[in-house]
Amino acid sequence: MHLSDVLIHINDSLNKPQQAALEEAMRDIDGVIAPRFNPGTNHLLLVAFNPDVTSSAALFARVTALGYNAQLIGV
Questions:
Q1: 17, HSE (Cβ side, Cα atoms, 13 Å)
Q2: Are 35 and 58 a contacting pair, CB within 8 Å?
Q3: C-beta of residue 67 within 8 angstroms of C-beta of residue 26
């Protein structure tokens, strides 16, 4: 299994419950290994995933489908 990471910048600052809900929504995507916000960066979501199963575009699509304004970083 190969792993990749993608960083998604959320334009809004999210509180802890919003962060937890978004992380949980990302975990529902097949191939997602570890979505997480690092402490002090409540607008940056780092997602480790298996690129053989899903893509950074699919991850970004989930974030925007949930109503967040966001950008992929480094893509």
A1: 0
A2: no
A3: no
Domain count, the chain: 1
* Residue 35 DSSP SS3: strand
Predicted TM-score (pTM) above 0.85: yes
> Would you say 6 and 29 are in contact if contact means Cβ atoms under 8 Å apart?
no
Compute φ and ψ for 52, nearest 5 degrees.
-80, -15
Instruction: Show pLDDT as tens, one digit a residue, over the chain (75 residues).
Output: 789 999 999 998 899 999 999 999 999 999 999 999 988 888 999 999 999 999 999 999 999 999 999 999 976
Return the CATH number at 49.
3.30.70.100
Contact 16, 37 (CB under 8 A): no
Rg (CA), the chain: 11
